[in-house]
Design brief:
Blueprint lengths: L2 H12 L2 E3 L2 E5 H8 L3 H10 L9 E3 L2 H10 L16 E3 L1 H11 L2 H56 L17
Antiparallel strand pairs: 1-2, 2-4, 3-4
């Protein structure tokens, strides 16, 4: 992968969101990547609805849209605003299917980068899950060792400190006969 492709994949990966436990891209983001309008993209999806089962595509609820709006202040609803309806969210497979539906050279070219971005995100999440499980395993092991190490250090400190000498009284004392 060239440096420009790696940069493009990184930029695409930033547009991948986690919604309903799935990594998805919004219709407006994919439309911008593929160089078509969001309206045209959604028209093609409607015309080819059989190619987009629920596992490939779902429409965001108003609650999900409100959460997105709180994160990205540019998403608005209403007459004359940016969006009239909640956006469609495309999974990895849905994004790939879009390239075949749109059938433009740019869509085909970028579909490879989109898939690479999804794969990169999956690998990133899996590597963090592995690291997290290893850390949890170490914490479990060290939990029993911590007490043993603390007891060992306490015993070493007791051996290292000299015993307390009896203190001599201050002042004159008469010998006892």
């Amino acid at each position: 992968m060239s440096a420009t492709q790696a940069t493009a994949v990184a930029e695409i990966a930033q547009r991948i969101l986690l919604i309903r436990g799935q990594r998805v891209m919004l219709d407006s983001d994919i439309a911008a990547l593929y160089g078509v309008s969001t309206k045209r993209l959604n028209e093609q999806v409607k015309r080819n609805r059989a190619r987009f089962p629920d596992a490939f595509l779902f429409r965001l609820t108003l609650k999900e849209l409100a959460i997105l709006r709180s994160h990205f202040a540019t998403l608005r609803l209403g007459h004359g605003e940016h969006r009239k309806y909640p956006p469609n969210a495309f999974t990895e497979h849905g994004a790939l299917m879009l390239a075949s539906v749109l059938n433009s050279p740019r869509a085909i070219e970028l579909s490879v980068l989109v898939i690479q971005a999804f794969v990169q995100m999956r690998q990133f999440v899996q590597s963090h899950a592995e690291i997290s499980s290893r850390i949890n395993e170490l914490e479990k092991r060290l939990g029993t060792h911590d007490a043993a190490i603390a007891n060992l250090i306490k015993a070493i400190r007791q051996l290292a400190s000299p015993p307390a000498k009896p203190s001599r009284p201050i002042g004159f004392t008469a010998p006892i006969e």
